[in-house]
Amino acid sequence: MYQRLIIFNSVLLASLFFMTGCTTTSSSDTARTGMEQLLISNAVDQSLDHIDYSAFNGQNVFLDDKYLESIDKPYIVSSLRHRILHAVATIVAKPEEADSVLEIRSGGVGTDRVDAFIGIPKLSVPGMPIALPEVRLWSRIKQSGTAKIGLVSYDAKSNQILGNGGMTLAKSSDNNTFLLGIGPWQNGSVRKEVKDSSKYNSSSSPLPRKVAFSRPSQSFAPGSRSTEKYRLASEEKEADIKTQTSKSRFANGIFE
After folding, report:
1. C-beta atoms surrounding 61 within 10 Å
2. Is residue 68, in this structure, part of any structural domain at all?
3. Which end of the chain has less Cβ packing within 10 Å, N or C?
4. Is the pTM of this model over 0.85?
């Protein structure tokens, strides 16, 4: 009996020893990488920031996007709408309701990638089914985003052009450098945007990083006293922000 118990325990321990466990982790990637989307949005923001929207202050504006062709059209249109509203203008749904029509078009919105390295490329040995592996001493992966956007505005009643309009072009970048397999060392406009956005008191962008909204007013209409009061309040707020930023930079010993 005792011998049988020993044999049973030995078999049980051996079974436990040779038993293995397995864990399966499922993962997936989005159709477009986050960096690709950041490169596009960064270039679009830079491009739209080159434009002065003050001429639309107090105007009813119809945004015509029928000539805009891009996979990122929703972001481009929404970003432009944001800036028009930021200029204290009113966006209307029909051209008949507008004082001016703003027409947007795309000259090119996309990304590019360049890989460069110093080392030995992968080589095939003639007559043998083997190949020498690639050896990289130094390498750099450079990604860039480009946004070329055209704008023209005309009077909604007379169809006469308002100003010259024009094209605005901007590029974003993300660089990753490796040395002897060590890295990456990263830089570029996207990395700078991410770094600046993580700062509490960042003022690198003309649009606020802290999203806030105001309660709509019934008397808030272009040309009304409420509109003028809002414009003056906005100017006072911007001046106050600049003063606080200057004091903060002076206190931290930052000079330009």
Report:
1. 24
2. yes
3. C
4. no
Chain-centre distance for alpha carbon 83? 16
Give how many domains the chain has, as a whole number.
1
Query: How far is residue 43's CA from residue 204's CA, in Å, rounded to a whole number?
Result: 15
Q: Is beta strand 100-120 parallel, antiparallel or unpaired with respect to 60-64? A: parallel
Residue 55 lies inside a defined structural domain of this protein? yes
- Domain presence at residue 6: no
Structural domain boundaries, residue 65: 32-120+133-235
Cross-strand bridge partners of residue 170: 147
DSSP state of 110: E
| pLDDT tens track for 72-127 | 999 999 999 999 999 889 999 999 999 999 999 999 999 999 999 999 888 887 87
Kind plus residue range of the DSSP H or E element containing 73: helix 73-86
More confident residue, 28 or 4: 28
Query: Would you state the pLDDT for residue 244?
Result: 56
Token output for 188: 């570029």
List the structure tokens of 156.
């909604």
